[in-house]
Amino acid sequence: MRNSFHILFLFLLMICTFSFLKANGEEMPLVGKTIYLDAGHGGIDSGATYKDILEKDINLSIVKILASKLENMGATVYLTRYGDYDVSNIGVYHRKRSDLYNRAKMINESNADIYLSIHLNATNSSTWSGAQVFYDDICSENLLLAQTMKEAMGTKRDISEITTMYFNKQVKVPGVLIEAGFLSNSHDRYLLQKESYQEELSDKIIQGILTYFEHRNYT
Ligand SMILES: [Zn+2]
């Protein structure tokens, strides 16, 4: 009698532990993952602009939403900037290069699994629209992340290889650059300023991250 009680107790304990782990795994699928988020530009570098709408502000806003969602899923998240500033060394002649060098250095010196750079696009033609994912083929992981990200974001624009971007060449951690839309297109511009759209965008990007880690676990 005493033995069967013990067995029943152990059995119940196992069920409880299993359900707890399962629930935790589903809700916190990014436990143990470190993600570096890079909001493009900052400070005197506004990036693309349209009247008083500045790329640097929207980049940071998207990155902060992403960071909070990723942390809620168990990830450790770092940002290259947390406010409206750049990270160049004070007084340097090549400010932009110093800014990009320091961002790359921060990511390289971390134990991040991946990084994402968030930017907005702009061209002379107002008809161009939609998000686009850029990658550097310095490692094969970048192409995989770019492909999963494009699919998760459901964008019509094909992934594109970067061949000249200084920053992306410097970073040794797998990652991609996401141009979240065109400030030069009126519809994109309207959407990109809306918090609800930034949330939606973040959810899609997170789906891309999850799919990427799933692939990496099975290959
Ligand atoms: Zn930019």
Descriptive notes:
By secondary structure, the chain is an alpha/beta fold. It has two domains: 1-28; 31-218, Zn-dependent exopeptidases (Aminopeptidase, 3-Layer(aba) Sandwich). The chain is 50% helix and 16% strand. The protein has seven helices and eight strands. The chain has a six-stranded mixed beta sheet. Strands 2-3 form a two-stranded antiparallel sheet. Helix 2 crosses helix 7 and helix 4 (140-153) crosses helix 7 (195-218). The chain is globular. The N and C termini lie far apart (49 Å). The model has no long low-confidence stretch (mean pLDDT 91). Residues 40-41, 47, 55, 119 line the site of zinc ion.
Summarize this structure as a short list of keywords or feature phrases.
alpha/beta; Aminopeptidase; 7 helices; 8 strands; binds zinc ion; six-stranded mixed sheet; globular; 219 residues
